[in-house]
Target: Glyoxalase
Amino acid sequence: MIPGFRYIVDDVPAAVAFYRELGFEDVGPRAGGFAMLEGHGLRLMLNTPGAGGAGQSADDGTAPSPGGWSRIQLEVSDIDEELRRLSDAGARVRTSRIDGRGGAQAVIEDPAGNPVELFTPA
Model:
């Protein structure tokens, strides 16, 4: 089984285009408000609020929405080049390069504001 994660997005076609830039492939099925992609050994499911079971409100009435700080991490060989390439392609940069003990990271956002961490090990 491929590990999967789900993001809530506002615009499925825009999100699919963004994740294709990150090396994900649109594998379907496609339905109103839903898409499935695979890449980096992961399955990514994208839902708009209200679409399918995953887009439904919580028991307390809270509606799903994009954003937050929980994120996937994608390892890249050259973080500076990837930041430049993705920024030129229209990705929003939440944090520019940050150097830490384990390597360098930067956080970009998909079109709905969900974070994706780019990481280059030390």
